[in-house]
Amino acid sequence: MARLTLSALRKSYGAHAVVHGVDLDVADREFIVLVGPSGCGKSTILRMIAGLEEITSGSIAIDGRVVNEVDPKDRDIAMVFQDYALYPHMTVEQNMAFSLRYRGFAKAEIRQRVAAAARMLDIETLVARLPRQLSGGQRQRVAMGRAIVRDPKVFLFDEPLSNLDAKLRVAMRTEIKALRQRVPVTTVYVTHDQVEAMTLADRIVVLDKGTAQQIGTPEEVYETPASTFVAAFMGAPPMNLLPASLSGEGAVELPGGTRLQLSGASSSRLDRAPSREIWFGVRPEHLVPARDTSKAEIVAKARVVEPLGSDTMVQFDLGGVALIARMPPKSVRAPGDPLAFTMDPHDVHVFDRASGRRI
Amino acid sequence: MRRRSHILRHLVMALVCALMLIPFYWVAKTAVTNENIYAYPPRILPLKPHLYNFVDVWYLIPFARYFANSVIVSLIAVAGNIVFNAAAGYALTKNFAGKRIVVLLFLSCMLIPFQATIIPAYLVSARLGVLNSYLGLALPLLSTIVCIFVFKAAFEAIPASLQQAARIDGLGELRILFRIMLPLAKPAIATNIILSFIWSWNAFLWPLIITRDVTMQTLPLGLARFLAYVEDTTGALYAFVCMVLLPGIIVFLMAQKEFIRGLTSGATKG
Amino acid sequence: MNTAPPQRAGVAGSADAVAPPVRAADWYRRKRTREAMLVACFLLPSLMIFFLYRILPLGWNVILSFEYWSPLKAARFAGLDNYAEMFLEDDVFWQALTNTLIFILASPIAILLALAVALAVNSDLKGAAIYRTIIFLSYPLMSVAVGIVWRWLYDERGGFINFVLRGTGLIKEPIPFLQSFGWALPSVILADIWQVVGFYMIILLTGLQSIPQHLYEAARIDGAPASARFLRITLPMLRPSLFICAVIGILNSFTAFDLVYVMTGGGPAHATELLVTHIYNMGFGETRFDYAAALTVVQFTLLVILTFLANRAVGGNAGSVESA
Amino acid sequence: MQKRRDVLKLAAGTAAASFLPKKLYAQTGTKKLSILTWNIIDMEPLFKQWFATFQSQNPGVEIEWLDKKGPELPAFYQTQLAAGTPPDIVDIQGGLGLEWAGQGALLDLTPMLDKEPAVRARFNPEYLANWVFEGKNYLIPFYVSKSLLFYNKPLFKAAGIDYAPKSLDDILSYAKAVSGADRTGFLTLNFDWLYWPLFRMQGVDLLTPDLKKPTFNTPAGIETADKLAKATADGSINKISWTGRWVEPNGAFAAGNVGMMHAHSSAYFFVKTQGSWITPETIGIAEVPGYWSTPNSHGYAISKGARNPELAWAFLKFATEKSQAMDFARGRTLTTANAEVDKDFLAELDKNDPTAAAVLRTQIEHTDKLTGNWRLSDDSAVKNIVWAEMQNIFLGRRDAKTALADAEKKVERELRRT
């Protein structure tokens, strides 16, 4: 049982604040991913949880015990660093056993734990090697092994895959996911890669400029982004965002004069909009090719066509704004081809222009 | 392609080394011949080489005693340098109030020429009661600023995550220094050994001032004593230089092993 | 699952139940104090030695520089007399100052040379250890001997350099290197470079060996060419070592004392006089310790300024690798 | 095994003892005598013998002997002065003794010499007068030398010259005749005031007799400097003359490519070991034209801070006594300025080594023509000023007229300063 609770967590360097009051309640065995662009404060939060950074204000509690005033070693956490931080002068085995030795474990127990972790991570044959004799992926496993042998309350991962090449990154991602099912420990995982976040997380925390923009399951974050920032950050290619205006009674006027009538719940929310100026958002895959051009809400000409095999990405202009649509393969062949789309009102997003918040 | 660049590099290095070695050759040649180095044209190959100069060096001064003195003083200096410099260098990688001042202080300490500090340094040593002792000989050399900065630079090149990992693993500062930082700073340790050894081994003016007792003198002082016997004949001087130089080279070669190990085993490479 | 039951401060039902503690600052302050104490303990031995053998003597020099003093006469206040004499009447001081600056400004040549050598011998080149040893070999030599050998190398009649230059037909008339006002200082500087280049090399090698290899691996994965790896990784990571070298270059303007003293004695007509030889001559040669003290203070101030500039030149923070 | 352990024990014991600072002699007892000599450690057996004899005459006296090499002795002595622990007796070379006397470091020996005229009578009066500062005698001669002229007879013969030069013009014209290819005609040592006879023989003196005003900036002075500069430029004079100190000039002359060398007697013994061409037939020995020469002598002084000045004086009397001085002259082949000793020793040497005897004989003759021994308390400052400008002239950077005028101005300022 290990819960992790952050309340009103703040961090500033002098007058410069990098984390502005983050609240987060991580349930036992939950896998939380902090995601955001570089400089958003995600690593700082992780390091505050680890005790490597001072907390300016707010608190961190593990299992209800406030650990603000607890040294890193006594917080019962384990951390996997971006560069793995394996001790270069020790063998894999010594690396994994290192912290246990300083925690007064019996030799036999250390041996047994290291062996178990090595078996679990499939690195049994490597235990006598030095870190520099390992490949990137193997080092990554050792780093995780070092965390696992500790059997901590909380696992912390600091962009653990960013030093690997693209192919290995995907493979390791899958492994972390698989490992997670065998060792279900409360985890906070930091990454700037939204795909990692989507695939690994139980819940995602999207951070920007030191504030949590949205906390939710991958589905929530993807389907109902709380702000234009989240909308643009999660998903590749990102959500199309157009400056638009509300023309009353649930209607939206897009650039180029197109009017779109939103129905039901959406339209009633629009009435509460603080301003008529909005961002209108639609994901590339939610631009549905219209069979009947006359009924299409968007009519345009393709500008760039990028066939990906499974899909074809098409760029086009709408009232001077560039948009991307994800279309079935071979549905569009060349630049200049005519395009026509309809949109399901449930799949479109409306954000306040000034605040960027979802309406 | 790679091989050709290697050959080119070998050629360049060989040339540089040859240029570096010319004065050496002359030292060695003169040491075994006693030739007048001002003879013209210079004689490139030694004529009738002999080893009398080396024998003279051994017998005309209490070479063994001076050698032992030099070894003791240098060992003290080397030990002091490693421990004190590593500690200070590690401290300087930390952030603390007044760090800039301390760094500035250390740097400025370097900038006073020893020639200008002889008299006060002697008075200080007299006050401490360490005149004419091994400790007194080594004391001013026990910590050197250049070497502190060598350690500082080496520690800073060690990824911060290693220290943090160690902290999470439950190590205190002393253990981090000794178990993590020092083993990873072997090139810096080797540099410290080499430099502090050479500095104390070659120190001349300070031993000259602080020792009164002939039996406390170090090898460089022996040179002066020795030259009094042989009337500044250069062959003897060079023989002496060869004999004084040798330990420095041996220490370098031994410490250099650490460098090589650093290269081949990647001890410092993450 | 855990080995020890957690010390519960109280089971919080929700995030709200955990009140943000205000006392945190106190704990951090204590922690920082503890760290500061540790830092102080680590610095103490070195500081003690420097205090006794560097700072006290500097203070002695500063006080003396405002006095009339000799080992046997009671001190008399001199005000700025020593400084006035130095700046207004002492031509040798100005010459020595110029020469000292030239000596320092020549050190980048040696540092670049050493950097090239260090890069070459830090590679997978076979026999690198031999090259390294040979190039370092000149450093442990006693400066007095180095001076004597180079004095001979430069000799107008019997010297090796003239012998070679004339033998290969490069020059007709021998060059009196150390007897010529134009050649004397460059000649001394060259001999000095010969001696210290191995020192620079060692420092730079230490720096090179401390660069974590994974930085290069990452760069290689990113497809950075060798030149970019040098400019983006090697050079920035070498900054602390380069700074040490720069400081050694500055120091060298007085550690070269023996060499200058033996090779030229500061001559001809002060053409190779450095501030430090002038200081020594004034102190122990002319028994004017008060005036030598004033010279020391001025040289010290000059070198502090130069060190400060060198620090700025390599990116500040006394040669630290800038961390975020 | 047992033996090795003993050796180790002994070594450890010695090492431990060495770690403990030795007590400064000055802080203990009163019957201690400390003697600082200038680079004569090779005389250790003789000195040890003297100490033994002296101790038997003065029971209970402990003697500490320190020896430092030339360039380092001043630094050592002055440090000891500052620390208040100067050696009782110090051996000083050249004009340094007068500077230290001027500083108040040395004891005035005049009362002792006055009280014991027999001691005063031992010494050559001119050499003794070398160290009279402001009318008081601060040092007594230990061993003495002065400059003379050596010449390479084969080179002279090849150039058609077969006698020693009688004037500066002779020197320069012979030098020119000898020089050519890689030969040069003339060399001089230059430290202290060793080059000054070249000016003095032209009637140029440095200072007025009262030492208050410079007198070298005269037409004769300028002319002399000019001549030397020209001869240097055309290769008659070896450039080492103006930069080298001891090893190079002697080495160059010994190499056999230099016609003449102006140096003091000890140079002969150095040159002889380095030059295979040197035999009694080939080396010419002559007085400097006009018999001018610069002394380069060692004297004994007693520190004013000496704990036992009477004991120190007793030792000086002992060391300069005929028997001791004679042993010393024999040991080092030199002149002591003890008139009786020098006479006897030279007679003895005539039989064994006539060339050496001829060299040493010049050292005790014409001692009334000593120059370059100005009794100034700031002799080295004056020396440095004049020498720098001389180098400028001789090596062709400045013309003699302006350089000497500058030197004159600076010397005047220096003389005013003290």
> Could you state the order of secondary-structure elements of chain C as H and E?
HEEHHHHHHHHHHHH
Count helical runs of chain A. 9
Taking the alpha carbons of the first and last residues of chain A, their distance comes to 38 Å
If strands are numbered along the chain, what order do they take across the biggest sheet of chain A?
A: 6-7-8-3-9-10
Interface with most residues: B-C, 103 and 105 residues
Count of DSSP helices of chain C? 13
Unreliable segments of chain C (pLDDT under 50, ≥5 consecutive)?
1-22
Average pLDDT score of chain A: 88
Overall description:
The complex is a heterotetramer of chains A (359), B (270), C (324) and D (418). With 359 residues, chain A is of the alpha+beta class. Chain A has 2 domains: 4-233, 3-Layer(aba) Sandwich (Rossmann fold), CATH 3.40.50.300; 240-352, OB fold (Dihydrolipoamide Acetyltransferase, E2P) (Beta Barrel), CATH 2.40.50. Chain A is built from 9 helices and 20 strands. Chain B is globular, with a radius of gyration of 23 Å. In chain B, 73% of the residues lie in helices and 0% in strands. Chain B has 270 residues and is mainly alpha-helical. Chain B has 2 domains: 1-50, no CATH class; 51-263, MetI-like fold (Orthogonal Bundle), CATH 1.10.3720. By secondary structure, chain C is an all-alpha fold. Chain C is 67% helix and 3% strand. The longest helix of chain C is centred in the first third of the chain and has 42 residues, at 24-65. Chains in contact: A-B, A-C, B-C, B-D, C-D. Chains B and C meet through helix 1, helix 3, helix 4, helix 5 and helix 7 of B and helix 1, helix 4, helix 5, helix 6 and helix 8 of C.
Brief digest:
Chain A has 359 residues and is α+β, with helices and mostly antiparallel strands.
